[in-house]
Amino acid sequence: MATWLEQGDIVLFQGDSITDAGRIRENANDLGKGYALLAAALFSAKYPEKQVTFFNRGISGNRVPDLQGRWQEDCLDLKPNLVSIYIGINDTWRRYDRNDGTSTEKFRDGYRQLLDQTASTGAKLLLIEPFVLPVPEDRKLWREDLDPKITVVRELAREFGARLLCLDGLFAQASTRAESAFWAPDGVHPSPAGHALIANEWLKVVGAAE
């Protein structure tokens, strides 16, 4: 597969804390300490001649409605050629810790609006489905809420002709090689190894892996 990124492209990583990964928001070029940094670094080392620019605008705690509220400034205004969106786990989590979840319908409608706005610019789309691992055990209960949202992301990827990064299965498969907590100590936030797992898969999806 030829790499999906062209000379001088701008790539935007969008999402919640997993994308944010402790980035310094005052530094517009800071990529955080997670998969976005790893993917950008590995891509740039392999294809230095392409001079691709990477931005990270993930914000911890964000849900789909939060992205809707800041999409113009934190996405469209940056004029990205490829937008990588990783959102959804907080839309489920808030149901269980604050009784303030995002319904599947609201999640679908909001996500579709983001994609409509972005696709109209001609930008390429890469959707990353959310995942959860059973650490602690009560995370298993989240499946009732999260699984329909994962299905939504897959359906939207097909609807918009986006490339899809299937994280839920990836982390489930990885958990057969090492316990779930090795990949995500709280079932949600990846460990360094978990971030590397995402980054490697991201590179495969854009055709930049070995």
Name its key features.
alpha/beta, 11% strand, Rossmann fold, globular, 210 residues, 5 strands
Give the topology, please.
Layout lengths: L9 E6 L1 H4 L14 H12 L6 E4 L7 H11 L7 E5 L2 H9 L6 H16 L4 E5 L14 H18 L2 E3 L1 H8 L5 H4 L8 H14 L5
Parallel strand pairs: 1-2, 1-3, 3-4, 4-5
Q: Can you describe what's shown?
A:
InterPro entries: Ester_Hydrolysis_Enzymes (IPR051532), SGNH_hydro (IPR013830), SGNH_hydro_sf (IPR036514). It comes from Paenibacillus pectinilyticus. Residues 15-197 form the SGNH hydrolase-type esterase domain. There is one protein chain. With 210 residues, the protein is α/β, with parallel strands linked by helices. The chain has a single domain (10-206), classed as Rossmann fold, CATH 3.40.50. The protein has helices at 17-20, 35-46, 64-74, 89-97, 104-119, 143-160, 167-174, 180-183, 192-205; strands spanning 10-15, 53-56, 82-86, 124-128, 163-165. A five-stranded parallel beta sheet has the order 2-1-3-4-5, sandwiched between helices.
